[in-house]
């Protein structure tokens, strides 16, 4: 328990920044009109591709006994991949709407 408290104490500024980023992201996405969500999803695919590569690098450089880095890296790879695939599915559906029907 003391190790967790020490971690929070030494990384207090970083934790505040992450919390503020969460609230800022919720506010920004909440104010985007629903018409623009699909084009934004396409842009998010590229961003999450970078997240996947970064997570793979973190997992590759992590020490084998650093389970927190390995677990967080694995979760980032899985969730980033799901987001990229979901974004491509939504974008494909959107593009099908504009195709001429036979």
Task: Describe it.
The protein has 102 residues and is an all-alpha fold. It has 2 domains: 1-31; 36-102. Helices cover 82% and strands 0% of the residues. It contains 4 helices and no strands. It has helices at 2-10, 12-30, 37-61, 67-97. Helix 3 (37-61) runs antiparallel to helix 4. The radius of gyration is 18 Å and the shape is elongated. It starts with a helix and ends in a 5-residue tail after the last helix. The model has no long low-confidence stretch (mean pLDDT 83).
Layout: helices, strands, pairs:
Elements (H helix, E strand, L loop, with lengths): L1 H9 L1 H19 L6 H25 L5 H31 L5
Helix pairs in contact: 3-4
Short description:
This protein has 102 residues and is mainly alpha-helical. It has helices at residues 2-10, 12-30, 37-61, 67-97.
Major beta sheet, specifics? none
Uncertain regions: pLDDT < 50 for 5+ in a row? none
Q: Roughly what is the average pLDDT, rounded to an integer?
A: 83
> What is the CA–CA distance across the termini?
65 Å
**Counting H and I runs of at least 4 residues, what is the number of helices?**
4
SS-derived structural category:
mainly alpha
Helix content: over 70%
Number of domains: 2
Radius of gyration: 18 Å
Q: Based on Cα principal axes, name the global outline.
A: elongated
Overall strand count? 0
The SSE string, one letter per element, is HHHH
């Amino acid at each position: 328990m003391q190790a967790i408290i020490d971690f929070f104490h030494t990384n207090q500024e970083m934790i505040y920044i992450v919390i503020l980023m969460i609230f800022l992201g919720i506010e920004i996405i909440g104010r985007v009109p629903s018409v623009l969500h699909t084009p934004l999803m396409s842009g998010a695919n590229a961003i999450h591709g970078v997240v996947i590569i970064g997570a793979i690098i973190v997992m590759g450089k992590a020490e084998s006994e650093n389970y927190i880095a390995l677990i967080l890296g694995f979760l980032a790879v899985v969730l980033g991949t799901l987001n990229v695939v979901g974004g491509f599915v939504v974008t494909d559906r959107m593009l099908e709407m504009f195709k001429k029907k036979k």
